[in-house]
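Task 17 of the worksheet. Students: predict the tertiary structure of the chain below and write it out as structure tokens. Keep your answer in the requested format; marks are given for formatting as well as content.
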Amino acid sequence: MKRKYYAILLVLLLMLVSACAPAQRADGSTGGETSAPAETGGQEQPQKTKVNFAVLSGPTGIGAAKLISDNEAGLTANEYAVTVASAPDELTAKLMNGEVDIAALPTNTAANLYNKSGGAIEIIALTNLGVLYILENGNTVNSMEDLMDKTLYATGRSANPEYVLNFLLRENGMEPGLDVEIEYLPAEEVAAMMVSGKAELAMLPVPAATSVLLKNGAVRKALDLTAEWEKAGAEGVLTMSCVVVRREFAGQNPEAVRDFLEELEASILYMTENVKEGAKLVVPLGIVGNEAIAEAAIPDCNMKFISGGAVREHIEPYYKVLFAADPASIGGKLPDDSFYYVP
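Model answer:
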């Protein structure tokens, strides 16, 4: 009887232990374990793609300021390592050695790099139209023809500004260097000369032009070169800045490129619609040095977001104008079909 009693007691004890123990799942885990933090809803968050993204200070980088700010807050789909450079050649070398995956560049630099690299990059978006202005300490220049026999200080040698200026002078019957003397200097030096009154005429992009106007009330916008481009009847749209991607990176990370384009479009829209708030973003990022200058410059940056098939429609006529004026301006030939990114 004792043995029977102990056997019954043992069975009861085993049943009690079994009832209290957590059930084991097929994966070996038990019902008492937590497989994911509560805030994720029990699902793992997708891994973010790391993207090395670079912009230039000034108008080429302003449109991306909200994207960069959101990235720092961890709000972007991709994880961006951001570089802000002061000159295009700093970025072209990094694109070629793989240090940069996506970069904002002047449009002529993009075509040059494509041709010289054997097609290692693709253009994925256009971001800025015309941003060039002729400034005057005085009131004698009201048309391109009024530049005849004058000295013009300018920035942008061997880049979009020089090619645009030369084209417009020739379209108005003047030869650069003969009918108009042009002195190319760094933007900071040209701006300082205009502010001090040592120079009467200058060609500058925003925000450098904006800085001059704020610092010297005697200086005025004499000519908007985007308007002069349209007056000349040139084909295409004067388009100064674009975004390119390394072909290898785009092929391996199509979703990351798609997410980037969506985030860049949203960033440009934010910067154009929230000028005061946007101006506060660019200074700590090193894109513009002064908040007041940034706020005044953003409306003149002519920011747009153009992607997909519309890129070629907008930029190719402009490239044809540059090629006709100087083939070297875009690397000796027009970019072919594979330059234009197809999602």
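Marker's comment: The first helix runs from residue 2 to 20. The chain has a mean pLDDT of 89.
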